[in-house]
Inverse folding.
């Protein structure tokens, strides 16, 4: 299996200190719980949310900045050196500085949003931007020195460019509340959504999926021609969307961007499904149940985006689009993270051992099963609550989300505890 061998060969020599990626993942798990609590506090305001400061916006950014981007930072900083066969520049620094800056910035951003404090929001946005620029430098160093996985490397460079657009639009939107206008609001919102969700996160997820899905399924790499077509369509979609939003080409072309993005995503999912069907390992547990649910939500988000652009009359269409888009990315990443965390824990704990532990030995399956049911119910209830203007369904969805987040935290703590115990026992004389 080409991908698995490439990825795992001599990987132990390219690992960061265990506390580095795991502190990013731990923060994401905590922010996951806080996000559901914030959305529960927001309550019925979610149904008619059209923007503006408050608990709904804070909960949304706890998910996007706190969970999605936080997970992407931790995963990419560790997995890219392993995948591209190059040593890490340092075991701890400057990753600790990046983590501290980013966590502080996210807390300031969401507090500024929740409590209607524009100055705090602006300061938090600047801190987040500084942290992400530091990450961009680390990402560029990894990509520049890459010795393999060219398809993943191109996805990484495209994600890096998307991050720059994301930062410009984010600072513009944060500055509006303090009277600082960088980009016109409608254009900034469009750029922010397109390049945060489909650009940065979408490209990183797609790129790493070409490593992780074949590796976990023990399958061969997808056909390069189809992978390149998917990437080309995705980049074309983002470019056209940016030109439309900046007013450089006719607005009608935004529909073309949506269709091109949808085709890119569907080709990617088809390649991943082919890998899953042809792989030697068929039973991948609840994690890939979440991955498939995430894929379905993201595919539906493209359909709803097209309906919004064509002005087809759907009640609360923008809110439903947000749930499908953010919920789909969240679901997909939590599914992948539930495989990455035990995998990395086993690699760290088993370094130098004749019989290292397997990822399954580091996994508590029952919390993951509980999380799957609770998370799926949360998404379904949120969609139903918004569709039918039913506050009780909405509250039920947030409560299910809270229960799922607690279960997911229990899974993470179990894996961390197992790894820590093994590392401590090896350190004893």
């Amino acid at each position: 299996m080409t991908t698995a061998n490439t990825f795992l060969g001599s990987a132990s020599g390219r690992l960061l200190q265990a506390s580095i990626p795991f502190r990013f993942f731990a923060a994401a798990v905590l922010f996951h719980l806080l996000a559901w609590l914030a959305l529960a506090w927001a309550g019925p305001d979610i149904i008619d949310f059209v923007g503006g400061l408050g608990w709904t916006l804070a909960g949304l950014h706890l998910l996007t900045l706190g969970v999605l981007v936080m997970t992407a930072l931790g995963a990419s900083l560790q997995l890219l050196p392993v995948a591209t066969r190059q040593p890490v520049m340092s075991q701890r620094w400057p990753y600790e500085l990046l983590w501290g800056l980013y966590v502080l910035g996210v807390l300031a951003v969401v507090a500024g949003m929740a409590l209607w404090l524009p100055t705090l929001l602006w300061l938090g946005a600047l801190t987040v931007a500084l942290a992400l620029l530091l990450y961009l430098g680390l990402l560029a160093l990894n990509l520049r020195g890459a010795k393999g996985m060219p398809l993943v490397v191109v996805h990484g460079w495209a994600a890096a460019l998307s991050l720059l657009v994301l930062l410009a639009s984010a600072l513009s939107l944060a500055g509006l509340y303090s009277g600082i206008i960088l980009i016109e609001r409608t254009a900034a919102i469009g750029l922010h959504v397109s390049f945060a969700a489909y650009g940065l996160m979408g490209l990183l997820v797609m790129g790493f999926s070409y490593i992780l899905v074949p590796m976990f399924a023990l399958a061969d790499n997808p056909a390069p021609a189809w992978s390149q077509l998917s990437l080309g369509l995705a980049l074309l979609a983002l470019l056209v969307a940016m030109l439309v939003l900046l007013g450089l080409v006719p607005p009608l072309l935004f529909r073309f961007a949506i269709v091109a993005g949808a085709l890119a995503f569907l080709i990617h999912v088809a390649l991943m499904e082919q890998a899953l069907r042809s792989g030697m390992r068929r039973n991948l547990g609840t994690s890939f149940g979440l991955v498939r649910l995430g894929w379905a939500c993201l595919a539906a988000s493209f359909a709803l985006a097209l309906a919004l652009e064509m002005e087809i009359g759907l009640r609360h269409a923008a809110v439903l689009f947000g749930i499908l888009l953010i919920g789909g990315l969240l679901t997909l990443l939590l599914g992948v993270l539930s495989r990455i965390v035990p995998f990395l824990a086993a690699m760290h704990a088993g370094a130098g051992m004749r019989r290292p532990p397997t990822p399954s030995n580091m996994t508590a399956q029952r919390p993951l099963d509980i999380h799957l049911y609770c998370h799926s119910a949360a998404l379904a209830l949120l969609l139903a609550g918004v569709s039918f203007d039913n506050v009780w369904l909405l509250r039920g969805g947030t409560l299910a989300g809270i229960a799922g987040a607690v279960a997911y935290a229990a899974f993470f703590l179990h894996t961390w505890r197992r790894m820590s115990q093994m590392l401590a026992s090896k350190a004893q004389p």
User: Anything to note?
Assistant: The domain at 2-419 is CATH 1.20.210.10 (Cytochrome C Oxidase; Chain A). The first helix runs from residue 2 to 8. The radius of gyration is 21 Å. The chain has a mean pLDDT of 91.
